[in-house]
Amino acid sequence: MSKDKTYSELTVWLLAVRDHRDRAAFGDMFDFLAPRLKGFIIRCGARPALAEEIVQDVMLTIWRKAAMFDPHKAQASAWIYQIARNRHIDIVRKESRPVPDELGEDPGTEPDASQILALEQEALHLKQAIQQLHPDQKEMIEKAYIGDLTHQEISTQTGLPLGTVKSRIRLGLGRLRKELKGLR
């Protein structure tokens, strides 16, 4: 089977999934795409195990969001590879977020009672500070840091522009810094 024929079949498979939730078409698409997506993600710099995880996530996203595919706006392969690329970027960003020194732990050390009490008090102060935020800022902070969503995922979920999401998070974090400044 030629590469062009298979890529045109990709559109047929994707439309069958979009329009009829066709499991057989999804299976054919998975068999065709999985090794290609894994190779693409590895070439983007991911470890093989991470690439497999991303492929699974991308395929699940394709199943869930097939209704968003419009063959008049993009080729099926471009739409799918963009999902894969974006998912890889999201994971790289999450992995490269700096961990504050206060949150870093030495492996094998058990906290004593005073450390546990101090941590509980800090958590209480943080919870109170979050409750004092403007509701829009509070929602964005909770989605980003408790829900572990990317800014783009929050934007998609809430329907807000990406810049609005980022501004609310930035303003909320600024207020939290002021509120929690005296803790340390």
UniProtKB/TrEMBL annotation:
PROSITE patterns in the record: SIGMA70_ECF (PS01063)
Pfam families: Sigma70_r2, Sigma70_r4_2
CDD domains registered for this protein in UniProt: Sigma70_r4
RNA polymerase sigma-70 region domain ranges (all copies): 33-97
Domain of life of the native organism: Bacteria
Keywords, ordered alphabetically: DNA-binding, Sigma factor, Transcription, Transcription regulation
Residues of the RNA polymerase sigma factor 70 region 4 type domain: 126-176
Record-stated family: Belongs to the sigma-70 factor family. ECF subfamily.
Protein name, UniProt field: RNA polymerase sigma factor
Species annotation: Leisingera aquaemixtae
